Amino acid sequence: MLSQFLLTIAFKSALSVGKSVIGIGSGSGSSDDDDELLPTPDIPDLSDPITGDPSEDLNPINEEMFSSWALFILLFLLIAALWSSYYLAQRRIRAVHETVLSIFYGMVVGLVIRLSPGHYIQDTVTFNSSYFFNVLLPPIILNSGYELNQVNFFNNLVSILTFAIPGTFISAVVLGAILFIWTAIGLDGINISFVDALSVGATLSATDPVTILSIFNAYKVDPKLYTIIFGESLLNDAISIVMFETCQKFHGKPAKLSSLFEGIWLFMTTFTISLLIGCMIGLLIALILKHTHIRRYPQIESCLILLICYESYFFSNGCHMSGIVSLLFCGITLKHYAYYNMSRRSQVTIKYIFQLLARLSENFIFVYLGLELFTEVELVYKPLLIIITAISICVARYCAVFPLSRLVNWFYKAKSNGSTTNASGSTEEIPYNYQMMMFWAGLRGAVGVALAMGIQGEFKFPLLATVLVVVVLTVIIFGGTTAGMLEVLNIKTGCVDEHDESDDEFDIEAPKFINSSSSRFGSSPYSDFNAQNAASSSRAELVPDFPPLAEEMENEFNASSPRISNVQNIKESIGSLFKSDSQWFQTFDEQVLKPVFLDSNAQNSVNSKSPTPNQNGTFSPNDNSQ
Amino acid sequence: MLSQFLLTIAFKSALSVGKSVIGIGSGSGSSDDDDELLPTPDIPDLSDPITGDPSEDLNPINEEMFSSWALFILLFLLIAALWSSYYLAQRRIRAVHETVLSIFYGMVVGLVIRLSPGHYIQDTVTFNSSYFFNVLLPPIILNSGYELNQVNFFNNLVSILTFAIPGTFISAVVLGAILFIWTAIGLDGINISFVDALSVGATLSATDPVTILSIFNAYKVDPKLYTIIFGESLLNDAISIVMFETCQKFHGKPAKLSSLFEGIWLFMTTFTISLLIGCMIGLLIALILKHTHIRRYPQIESCLILLICYESYFFSNGCHMSGIVSLLFCGITLKHYAYYNMSRRSQVTIKYIFQLLARLSENFIFVYLGLELFTEVELVYKPLLIIITAISICVARYCAVFPLSRLVNWFYKAKSNGSTTNASGSTEEIPYNYQMMMFWAGLRGAVGVALAMGIQGEFKFPLLATVLVVVVLTVIIFGGTTAGMLEVLNIKTGCVDEHDESDDEFDIEAPKFINSSSSRFGSSPYSDFNAQNAASSSRAELVPDFPPLAEEMENEFNASSPRISNVQNIKESIGSLFKSDSQWFQTFDEQVLKPVFLDSNAQNSVNSKSPTPNQNGTFSPNDNSQ
């Protein structure tokens, strides 16, 4: 009662004082000095056709106020999206997904902002590709790399790379060709060169993992399908960015055959070097942690780890390499080596911070996409072009997924020729229903929109509008029907990974339902095969945990779900592939890399399997009283 | 060896490809379209005298690259600052402080950027008051509120409010008057009105807590002095912001006596309403957490808590209230009520994230200040004005600290008249050496610089330059000599707070030295009187911890350091004040507020003192096997 009363008073007073202050500010016309040194995050576009001169009626104080309101609205949308997410999880509603709702909220608020008078808030909430690439994207990629299930990822590497590299290429070329032919017909009054059409094709070839993977998580879809789609969408973001930038370099030049090879060479170099930069920086962190005492100061340690990871992104981008690839592999290396050299507190901090930042960024991106549809004033919508593009991306995805699946199946068949057939019930590596699901999983995301903002030339705005609408359509249509398709296609769901049970030592309030989405909503059940060790070590012993030996990992992995024979079989088949394909790396890793990059404490413990007190002798193995 | 080899190759290739790509980009002149839709965080100032038209030789790709390098440099400076901090802690060097080094690094790199050709990076790394207020400041304030030692803070509330409110006012008026008189003489060719002089006075009246408090932490200075300085500098940021904005509203108008009362009224309203907004939002979070099951989804829970806290800041700013005050009290309320309704995982996540963000922001701000000295191209340095201002801030601080200390002493003397005299060895609440230390602790910080960017009128740039130089000077001079002054003034140091020992359950690697700064570097020993409970509950029992009853708190508080008689005595005297002053609120809090805002689980546990299983029955009190 009291609080309600006070709340009412406070809000009323706040509003009235706010209004009177606004009145003073805008009425007094005290903006005799156009304050150039007080830029706001988004300076209103001076060439904006409907706004005129934005500094006309804005003094710095009002500017500050509008930017506060814009941020308030954005955060409010985020809160609404997260709240819906909680509500959906709580009610176990799976038909509607949180990302679809985020876009929807964004659209509603975008419409309100568009219709309301004044333009300052509208300018401030407009999608900004620089923010997207420098602020929103890095946490998502870093978290993906860090939470990646390395065993599954590297076991399916052949499939992932096949779909990611030639797949994206095929998709971009098919899409580019269709668009080029359509625009050459000239019904829309748009006429673009083949290179520009290819640019648009590249922007629309980046698939988005967020929606599809949270649905997969909710249904606990077969880890293999999960891993392939996850890996593909992670890598094809990077690949479409590199393709797009390569295309942009040829913008305005005549297309030659030599350009193709130059482009491919540029692409291969960029990818490889970016990967190396990422791994190097990850290893650098491991070495720094190993050879210094910085773990004694966990606050500084976690800050430094976070900063150095980001450095890999900006360094790579600064060298015109692919920051996404670097960051992804930096995250993977970090988890594989540096993780074991961190203090326990930093392990926890880093994990939670990566998760929180990634989640906020993901929701933000979808809210932004919805807002953009209405707050971007220069967009030119060409309905025919949009329809043609929407159809073409399905065609392009079809041309990429099905032939390449056949190739992958052929490759595995040829490889396993002579050995026992695949035990997973089907003789094919990627059966038809998986192929269909992969086709369906081809949602396009914010990376495409952000790239499309870099399109040059006179047809920039129609093309940008087309990309934006198509992206939103795919999220709503494919994202909204994924749950249904899983049933129609008879995809295996409910694959419980027992390692998941102890993913988090603090997560005690979540009810444990078998086969339920709600209890583990938002964290990937396939993401962390060391989770059990991490959780158990932190509880009573407070000993840094160390990677189990390869054989143990293998055993643990195979023994994890004895009751579910299908999963078991798949895992066995993965295990056998793993043995044959990656044996050399595993041996090298155990015998050369880990001794170099892991702390000697970790090494001892891997060998002796008993916790050793650290150099200060502050704990004993079962010290609960500390 | 292998890694070094690969590293060399990768870097060489990266650089060569990077160069060739830059060559292509800038040589081909493909920027036929000035991309208005790809704004970067800091659009180069179009009216910049030395840059000309920035879009002349920048296509979007190069723009993206420069912005990556600018971010790379900023993060690198941050890494350098944090690394120095580690090094200083490790070597136990206390003479040089990390913030001084941060400024120094910023200056060196700023100089290099200034001297190197090209202006894009220079434009991007320039201090931006909008970023400062919307991105860098909130985490620091929120963390301060959250980590505040509430018992100490409210016990010293009279002193804190006295120094914060009339103190800042006196300081601003004295400084404004001196500056007005000096500029009226006209030696510098500057002529400003009294209101503008008062604006500058207000910007230079915000003291900065970061440097001084980390030194105090390192030396474990008497909690009372610590709390007063901490509380003063927290509140006077808010107060100088409100004063500055009030002055700005009178900019260009003739000063009248009625303006003074109008200003005071505006100030009082703003402060009160902001405080209420902050408390309301904190209580709102507590109620949401209490009445929903959101703690079952800790990821969503932590995101929501963080977002709602930020909403208090932006909402308050949007209503032209003081976001800082709201955020501070939102943090305090959050810790006092909502903390106990959170899941354990969110408690940990929120704590670590607040700490990490605050630390990054603090370092960033000092790096930025150093950079600003050289990268801001429009500054006009007036040496005489700078010297006069530097002297004036000492005079102003003197006029604020010493008379008000006398007032506080008189107040406490009058209050305790008849009862036993203060047992702390001195008969005064604030003895002379404490007053001198408070005078010395008047470093000015980034809030002043950020405010100074909002100065209007033709003398903006000389005034901004003056504020910037004076701020840097105070940090270097006062910050560099604080450690020495502690010894000269014979201030009590080495006050070990036993609660501090178990501040963090994961912090096992830190060596425990009595009276050593290095083991607890960077976390306040006075900040969390519930830390022991929090830490112990998390270890084996996994039960949410609850606030101890008031009497227990009192007892614990008094019993915490039996060996150090002085501290004990001070605490006793505080305790007696506490009893008499805040008894009514404490009773009200226990009997009305806590039952309303805390979870019923919490209430039961406070009464029965035995952990109860939650509604899912998933744990028992000593469940180690989970």
Which keywords apply here?
globular; 0% strand; homodimer; 68% helix; mainly alpha; 626 residues; disordered N terminus; disordered C terminus; 22 helices; Na+/H+ antiporter like fold
Task: Briefly say what this structure is.
The first copy, chain A, is mainly α and about 625 residues long.
In CATH's first tier, which class of the domain at 129-415 and 431-501 in chain A applies?
A: Mainly Alpha
| Percent of residues in beta strands of chain A | under 5%
Q: Low-confidence parts of chain A lasting 5 or more residues at pLDDT below 50?
A: 1-57, 420-425, 498-571, 603-626
SSE class of chain A: mainly alpha
Biggest chain pair interface:
A-B, 141 and 141 residues
CATH-defined fold name of the domain at 129-415 and 431-501 in chain A: Na+/H+ antiporter like fold
The CATH level-2 architecture of the domain at 129-415 and 431-501 in chain A is identified as Up-down Bundle
Quickly count the helices of chain A: 22
- Total number of β-strand segments of chain A? 0
Shape of chain A: globular
From the alpha-carbon coordinates, what is the Rg of chain A to the nearest angstrom? 26 Å
Largest sheet of chain A: none
Give the CA-CA distance, first to last residue of chain A.
Answer: 44 Å
Query: What value does the average pLDDT of chain A take?
Result: 72
- Quaternary structure state of the chains depicted: homodimer
Share in helix of chain A? 55-70%
Report on this model:
The structure is a homodimer of 626-residue chains. Chain A has helices at 2-27, 60-91, 98-115, 120-124, 129-147, 150-155, 157-185, 194-203, 210-219, 223-249, 257-291, 298-318, 323-336, 344-375, 383-415, 432-440, 446-452, 460-488, 531-539, 550-559, 565-597, 600-608. Chain A has 626 residues and is mostly helical. Chain A has a domain at 129-415 and 431-501: Up-down Bundle (Na+/H+ antiporter like fold). In chain A, helix 15 crosses helix 18. The longest helix of chain A has 35 residues, at 257-291. At the A-B interface, helix 1, helix 2, helix 5, helix 10 and helix 11 of A face helix 1, helix 2, helix 5, helix 10 and helix 11 of B.
